[in-house]
Amino acid sequence: MRRVIYAAATAFAAFALMTACDKAESGNGGSNGNVENPGDGGNTGGGSDVIGSIADIPGDYSGSLTVTVTMMGQTGEPTPVENQAIAIAANQEVENSIDLTVSNFAFGDTPLGDIELTNIPVTEADGEYTFKTEDSQHISVGEASSALECDVTVTSGTVKANGEINMELSILTGNGAISVAVTYTGSKTAAE
Q: Is this model's pTM higher than 0.70 or not?
């Protein structure tokens, strides 16, 4: 049991050194958007609206993460991760809800794969779309033999009419000893 806890603690400590892998190199179809300049919205064409309704939110987004790990009461320095791809899909079972995939996480040199969350409600007010999970979602990340059990919550998320996205995630290990705060800022990528 101590080995499992130690492995989880080590993996989440390495999360501060997390790097994003390019989907094209991993053989997942290269759908990370490859935006030339994700800081300017990539596809927004100088501020034109690309999101006119909840139905326009699904698509690929590119941006950057900032990761802060708290382990055994000690909070580490925020670590930026550039060129992080996320994908949003319309949930097929619940109207006005989305499924969210944060692609290709790696802790240090150990790739863990995707963080996938489902059935996240979306509301609209004044041309801004807000989403967050009602409860945490329990997921397993990584290879089955060494998977990390986590509870993930989207604590806040917004998509603006110009395609800008801002999101905060909270990730807790199964025993709650390690927490990871993730902020994401990016924009919707152009459809090819």
A: yes
* Rounded-to-integer distance, Cα 83 and Cα 63, Å: 5
Q: Which residues, at least 6 apart from 146, have a Cβ–Cβ distance to it below 8 Å?
A: 7
Query: Which residue, chain included where needed, has tokens 């995707």?
Result: 114
Q: How far apart are CA 72 and CA 127, in angstroms?
A: 41
What's residue 150's pLDDT? 87
* DSSP code, position 176: S
What is the SS3 assignment for 1? Answer: coil
Going by C-alpha positions, the residue among 148, 166, 168 that lies closest to residue 107 is 148
pLDDT of residue 123: 96
Q: What is the pLDDT of residues 37-91, one digit of tens each?
A: 333 334 443 456 789 999 999 999 999 988 888 888 899 898 888 888 999 999 9
Count CB atoms within 10 A of the CB of residue 24.
12
Taking the C-alpha atoms of residue 164 and residue 166, their distance in angstroms, rounded to an integer, is: 7
φ, ψ of residue 56 to 5 degrees: the values are: -90, -10
Quick count: other Cβ atoms within 10 Å of Cβ 55?
9
